[in-house]
Structure formats: C-alpha cells, structure tokens
Amino acid sequence: PQFSTAGTGGGALTVTGSPTGKTWYDSLQMKATKRLSRGLQASSSFTWSKALVFTRQDIFNPDSSIKTLQSTDQPFFFNGSLVYETQKWVSNKMLAWATSGWQVSTFLQYGSGFPLTPPAVTSTNNLTQGQPNYQYRVAGQPLFLKDLNCHCINPYSDQVLNPAAWANPANGVFGTAALYNDFRAERRPQENLSLARNFRIKERMNMQT
C-alpha cells in the first residue's frame, strides 16, 4: 500500500491500495519422488484444492459481499517429471561410449480449466461507469447445449453455450460477480519430451547437447 498525509503538523493519513478483501485456499497435496538410481529419477505432485475470494456484488452495499471462486481456481492439478540416462552396460569401450550418457526426459502437467467470467449484460444499465456488468444464471437452464466430452463438436459450426442460461439484470440492478464451478475454460495439458546427450569430460565437468 501507499501512504500519504494531508496538511501539515500531523494531518490525516490516507492509505491507498491496501488489501481490504479476504481470500481462502484449502488443499490436499500429495507428492511422490523416486531418487536417482540406475539412471532413473522421477517426481510427481497432485493437488486437490479450492480457492475462494470475497466479492462485493453491489459496490455500494457492503452486505452484498459473497464468497466466490478466484479466477485462478483449479480444483485438480497434476505435475509429473521423469528423467532417464542410459548407463554403461557393455564392456567394449567404444560401444559403451556410444550408448551411454543419452538422457530422455519428460514433463507432464494436467489441470482443471480456469473459471469463466459470466457474459456481460447486453442492455444499458449505466451503473458501473464503463465497467462491465454481468448477467445472472437462469435456474433450470443447462449451461451447454452439447456434452463437452462427446467428441462430436465442430468448433467452426456448432453452438455449444446455451444463450438461455443467462439473463440481463433489471434496470438499476447490479449483475452477478460470482464465478461458477461448472462454467470453466477448456483444459490445456502440457506434455514435453526431450532427448539429450551427456559427455563426461572429467569427474566434475560435463557437457550436454
């Protein structure tokens, strides 16, 4: 936060940018590690969590504050890495040099999609001075017109989101600021594979290509 004083001789103190909200993070975390042996080492971690934040629905009404998901909430998150380096397994020096020191490594990351912001209102409300105002969920209406896991969606022609699932707030009323656990972006896994060669120059010196 930044501090400033008004007037002289011990004037009023103003604090700007101070953290006035609350956040919560609860998680179950697990980790498994295989230490280096016979050229192989691996590690993995899994997190099951929930990240919440206080959001005020109506900026003029302190009682309208609610707990809602943070925009960075990912209920399930997995990291995994594996490195294997080929060892000397033959007595022939030339063959051992040619086949040892090769290193294969992989890094994997999988996680839930991030929460999506509700659609912006399509009517003029004039409450937020140019800031977006969001629509409400309509009870009983499904969010999606198709099963997202059916492997039958053509992204160029199929309508997936259900427009009837959202409704504009009444004139003079703020829309929702809440994020929903079932309204998320797509998952974006990361899968990396690399191949390298270690050249032993001397005991404490190594070159990798």
Key features?
209 residues, mainly beta, 7-stranded antiparallel beta sheet, two-stranded antiparallel ribbon, 11 strands, 3% helix, 41% strand, disordered N terminus
If you had to describe this structure to a student in words, what would you say it looks like?
The protein is mainly beta and 209 residues long. It is 3% helix and 41% strand. It is built from one helix and eleven strands; from the N terminus they run ββββββαβββββ. It has one helix at residues 93-99, and strands at residues 2-5, 13-16, 23-37, 40-56, 65-69, 76-85, 102-111, 136-137, 166-167, 190-202, 205-208. The strands form three sheets. Strands 3, 4, 5, 6, 7, 10 and 11 form a seven-stranded antiparallel sheet that branches. Strands 1-2 form a two-stranded antiparallel ribbon. The chain has a two-stranded antiparallel sheet with strand order 8-9. A hairpin with an 8-residue loop joins strand 4 (40-56) and strand 5. The model is unreliable at 1-8 (pLDDT under 50).
Please provide the ordered H/E string of secondary-structure elements.
EEEEEEHEEEEE
- Tell me the overall shape: elongated
Uncertain residue segments = 1-8
Strand content: 35-45%
Helix content: under 10%
Report the sheet with the most strands, covering strand number, pairing sense and barrel closure.
7 strands, antiparallel
Measured distance between first and last alpha carbons:
47 Å
Number of strands: 11
Structural class: mainly beta
The Rg value, from CA coordinates, equals 27 Å
